């Protein structure tokens, strides 16, 4: 139970970083922390007490293993996070070329 | 029966073929993209006949039986959304043959567009919750790239803000799916509903419902979560604005919200009340903020927030008549909001500006654009006998019948406000005498005119065709929502 | 015309890179092919294959890596990977269902040639992920090159 609470605290730290930091790169790092926290939470959901890794090998008798389904789903989610991070970093580089600053309070041409 | 996966295969295959060969062969990307969307539209019309014959069709991917495998479900609500999405996307691809000539790298535009369409079709068709999340991410990432397509300074800023907010919303949705998996240990939609009905709802299901509401609510631009929409929709190229405002926020937001709340978690009176409150606030906020705008596309974006508020309000009321009105308004809004955004694109193509204070008297120079936009504006304001009047009438009657008198009054007031700002748009942009600057503008090319005329015709006849043609089509969709938790029995019944 | 900024890193790094880049590529291919027996599979193997080319680029400068796999080639490989995956799925259609496996034997567990279409899907995914990640890195490095010229 305590591991789940710690994952949610990590999620809140990432959310604080996205909301309050002014540098674009720090916002991107905050998004990364949010994604890590969610993936970690999902993998920990599949833990069973005294389970072993869900990998079979020849002539091995298996009694109990952890749940392998969240591990497969988290693999997909990590790749999705990679794609989003790559896109946002490319946009951030172009933003620096156009506006000349990384400060998000100064990038405010769209108003109203 | 076997054509359900083709809704995802055709756009995916088209996207990668265009990415491979689009630069080498001239006009290849145009032809292939239009063929793809035309075939998808014909397939979706065929799916209506399937639903009328069989009531529900379940397709097992790979032959694996759910809940071990993924299944694709075709029922009334699915076929309704498929027709809406594919009709609008076909007309938008026809429009963008001429419009996107002004941008560089047209084949990359088509690749991203078909990927977004594949994601949206996948969300509508799937019957598995994590599959819904993966397709949602595909569509969302493609849309972040499409909003930044012109790479001007303001477009990049809008795309960055949209991307950050969209990623936080997707992480809320993933957290909700993880919590739901830990409670029910299955991911298939019908199976989750079965386990919930046997096990009972715990406290964690309330938390999951709030997380889903926040996540999908941001994608649907409900009012506390709407701040990305007025920046993102005007900055995108005009066909993408039409797709985003017309079908994207409805598929990712409203359809996914319906599926999760009506069929999986089960709707309760608390959630309905929250939806009514959020809908009413969205209606008011969108309308008031739209009056003060000078940029055409920004005004249309705020108007989208207002109309989505109508749809969520109708879904929150929950009676069969209200659901019918809400879904009909969803279909109508896709048609006329896409028409209005395509019109704004045509104005921008001819006159290079979007500012209402500088436009004037374009009716004499751009007749097709002027008259179609007049039809669209009258329809969205609820003027009889166009389509928008009937859908708003049904929603207001249903609200009065259910006892929400104040909200019905607010809905009528917002409708009058909508008429006000659309008439302002028409007067400033089209009526009156033309400025000297605009005396030489020419009418837009043929493909753009064609899309706008077809959408305007649908605007006009959808209202008249409501009782004879559209009613069985809508009733199938409404009956799926009314089934509520009976969804699982229908799906498992169709599996045997 | 000597340009000190573009020739990459020091001599020690270049020597070690020449020795290890081929081994990294081989390791990536091993992880892809054994995806159904041991952990790994398409995604992880694709990332390691892309890393070998990125390692080349970091040590020797942009042009050395672009001579091996040019930007256009990476784009073509990426689309080919995705089309290969789709066609494997469509071939299953002929046998009954989407993604159905009817043309490869299932074999014994823990053999290399077993588990039906999963190894083929792994190869397609690794092509796409590897080429895609390399293309992303090339494009992001391109901006730094533009800034240095101003």
Overview of the molecule:
The complex is a heterotrimer of chains A (112), B (496) and C (150). Helix content of chain A is 64%, strand content 0%. Chain A is mainly α. Chain A has one domain (2-99): Orthogonal Bundle (Helix Hairpins). Chain A is elongated, with a radius of gyration of 20 Å. The model of chain A has no long low-confidence stretch (mean pLDDT 88). Chain B has 496 residues and is mainly alpha-helical. Chain B has a domain at 280-464. Chain B is built from 19 helices and two strands. Chain B has a two-stranded antiparallel sheet with strand order 1-2. Chain B is globular, with a radius of gyration of 22 Å. Chain C is an all-alpha fold and 150 residues long. Chain C has one domain (4-149). Chain C has five helices and no strands. Chain C has helices spanning 11-33, 42-60, 62-68, 71-94, 118-149. The radius of gyration of chain C is 19 Å and the shape is elongated. The two termini of chain C are 18 Å apart. Chains in contact: A-B, A-C, B-C. The interface between A and C is medium-sized, with 13 and 12 residues.
What key attributes describe this structure?
heterotrimer, B: 496 residues, mainly alpha, two-stranded antiparallel sheet, 2% strand, globular, C: 150 residues, 5 helices, 70% helix, elongated
**Overall number of structural domains of chain C:** 1
**Radius of gyration of CA atoms of chain C, rounded to a whole number:** 19 Å
Task: Please identify the structural class of chain B as seen in this structure.
Answer: mainly alpha
How large is the radius of gyration of chain B? 22 Å
- Segments of chain B where pLDDT lies below 50 for 5+ residues? none
Please give a quick description of this structure.
Chain B is mostly helical and 496 residues long. Chain B is 77% helix and 2% strand. Classes of the chains: A mainly alpha (112), B mainly alpha (496), C mainly alpha (150).
SSE topology sketch:
The complex is a heterotrimer of chains A (112), B (496) and C (150).
Chain A: H1 2-20, H2 24-45, H3 69-99
Chain B: H1 6-21, H2 28-54, E1 57-60, E2 71-74, H3 76-99, H4 106-125, H5 129-147, H6 153-184, H7 189-199, H8 203-220, H9 229-235, H10 238-265, H11 269-291, H12 296-317, H13 320-351, H14 367-381, H15 387-402, H16 405-429, H17 446-464, H18 466-483, H19 487-495
Antiparallel strand pairs in B: 1-2
Helix pairs in contact in B: 1-2, 1-4, 2-3, 3-4, 3-10, 3-13, 3-17, 3-18, 4-5, 4-10, 5-6, 5-10, 6-8, 6-9, 7-10, 7-19, 8-10, 9-10, 9-12, 10-12, 10-13, 10-18, 11-12, 11-16, 12-13, 12-16, 13-14, 13-15, 13-17, 13-18, 14-16, 14-17, 15-16, 15-17, 17-18
Chain C: H1 11-33, H2 42-60, H3 62-68, H4 71-94, H5 118-149
Helix pairs in contact in C: 1-2, 2-3, 2-5, 4-5
